[in-house]
Amino acid sequence: xxxxxxxxxxxxxxxxxxxxxxxxxxxxxxxxxxxxxxxxxxxxxxxxxxxxxxxxxxxxxxxxxxxxxxxxxxxxxxxxxxxxxxxxxxxxxxxxxxxxxxxxxxxxxxxxxxxxxxxxxxxxxxxxxxxxxxxxxxxxxxxxxxxxxxxxxxxxxxxxxxxxxxxxxxxxxxxxxxxxxxxxxxxxxxxxxxxxxxxxxxxxxxxxxxxxxxxxxxxxxxxxxxxxxxxxxxxxxxxxxxxxxxxxxxxxxxxxxxxxxxxxxxxxxxxxxxxxxxxxxxxxxxxxxxxxxxxxxxxxxxxxxxxxxxxxxxxxxxxxxxxxxxxxxxxxxxxxxxxxxxxxxxxxxxxxxxxxxxxxxxxxxxxxxxxxxxxxxxxxxxxxxxxxxxxxxxxxxxxxxxxxxxxxxxxxxxxxxxxxxxxxxxxxxxxxxxxxxxxxxxxxxxxxxxxxxxxxxxxxxxxxxxxxxxxxxxxxxxxxxxxxxxxxxxxx
Length: 492
Prior knowledge:
Helices cover 37% and strands 19% of the residues. By secondary structure, it is of the alpha+beta class. Helix 2 runs antiparallel to helix 3 and helix 8 (258-267) runs parallel beside helix 10 (290-304).
């Protein structure tokens, strides 16, 4: 089924390209790589802003292009094209630089072949986390992968996962790519299912011959979900768990259903503020847009009140903009959408004024021939003296899926009293924020990158949130019963 989707996507690419000769994916890949390189060189702030945060960008921009270009001979399908685009984008070690297909891709639950089991990243090791029921002759759950035909587990990960599936320089990247280590994901540079691998179970080490098993969508989804926490169909909600409210925020997307969720939070505000405390569950809560941060702050305001949170919000500090026509156009287009939305005009007049001022600053900088310009952000607000309305303890539950606006929300929540951060390490993000999207020449890949630099952000560049000792969850992240029982102990 999944391969039919990919095949249909490849056929769609042929129609989009307009001629049979344009089926040469190698040519399209070279065009897209060069276009992405040029757009980043000409518009990304890291190209002209000094400092350590820009070093990874500058080191990879040209070297990564040469590396990716040397691999274009292997691009013979839409799948391969997508992998090579991701490889180049991931090499910047910047979660806000992405290259994604415009057609329906794999999603996280995809493989053409697998050995009937999967691995997870646990305590710095790749261990077996799931075995398909009825599968024989495979290592047991908990066994550690040692090597495969002379290559260590780490060498395997660097060759098969790094860049192709994610960024292994981050804990979040390790966690979310680990299930794919021994799968065939139709990546021509990643390899198929290895033939022989050694696993260690306790003190015993044993070699296993991995037998190729046809991968069904249901099988690989079950394997992935048993290894990495994945939100369900309803990302937002409020429920009572062990006598205290448990707020689910597993997405910051505009389509998540925020109006109904905010109404539910407001209706239970008094309960949330009671002495029993509550859980704020941000596992899997990805969000890249400006509105995702606003939603997180809006949630805090509904629980603690704006009068209390305003003096505890981190100062925005200075924002540095790369003064280019393309970056200016992003703000022009954004301003136009704001002004065309009657509700936004009614509720967010100051945001519209601020955006218009940014466009004017672009005009001035471009007229003066400046490469960059800097604007002050919101300053810290003195303590208003408002009393804390929340009486009980709060556990904020996070994991590797918390990214973007989720991290901005944590910047505020971790400043509030009686709040403890629990779970596992979040994703990191760079200071290069507010993504702009550009369609690449092939017409079936988009480049996204942050076009301004939060140069005075208090949280360091590429710095995740990590729960303190005693608040780190070391059990199976996919075992919801175990997670809830463990969280309950934090209130004792």
